[in-house]
Amino acid sequence: MAERKQSIHGQWSSRLAFIMAATGSAVGLGNIWKFPYIAGENGGGAFVLFYLLCIVLIGVPIMMAEVMLGRRGRQSPINTMRELAHEESRHGFWQIVGWGGVLAGFLILSYYSVIAGWALAYVLKAFSGAFTGIGGEQSKALFGGFTNDAYAVGFWHTVFMIITMVVVARGVRHGLEKAVRYLMPALLILLLVLVGYAMSTDGFVTGLKFLFAPDFSKLSGDAMLEAMGHAFFTLSLGMGAIMIYGSYLPKNVSIAKTTFYVAGADTLVALLAGMAIFPLVFTYGLESSAGPSLIFQTLPIAFGNIPGGVFLAGLFFILLVFAAWTSSISLIEPAVAWLVENRGMKRITASLWAGVVTWLLGFATVFSFNIWSDVKPLSGLATFEKSTLFDLLDYLTANIMLPLGGFLIAIFAGWLMTRKSSKEELKIKFPYGYPVWLFLVRFIAPGAVIAVFIVKTGLWTWAKNIF
Ligand code: PHE
Question: What is the rounded radius of gyration, in angstroms, for the C-alpha atoms of the chain?
Answer without folding.
Answer: 21
